[in-house]
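Protocol step 4 of 5: obtain the predicted structure for the target chain.
Materials: sequence only (see below). No template structures provided, no constraints applied. The aim of this step is simply to have a reference model before the mutagenesis design in step 5. Sequence pasted as it appears in the construct record:
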Amino acid sequence: MGLTSIVIGLVLAVMVLSLIAKVTNQGLRAAIAVAALLIIVVSVVFSSIRYVSPSEVGIVKKNAFGSKLTGGRIVATDGEMGIQADVLSPGWQ
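Step 4 output (structure tokens):
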């Protein structure tokens, strides 16, 4: 669902930005650009929200912005990339 939200947001933002060519008012052009940026931000935020059902535990995997695991470890405890020691409890996360 995460990547889908971002793709939908980008498509909507491009559709909104295509209106700029048809508008002559500078203020309205700026508003359209801000709306497109807002659509992108909202899609990124929605892509990171997950629901964990009451009978499940969410496992967090960090794919970027961290160092690699060292010493043969398989669980990251200090912000490294990989499967994190923190888990998500049931509910919206």
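Step 4 remarks: Residues 26-47 form the longest helix (22 residues). The radius of gyration is 19 Å.
Proceed to step 5.
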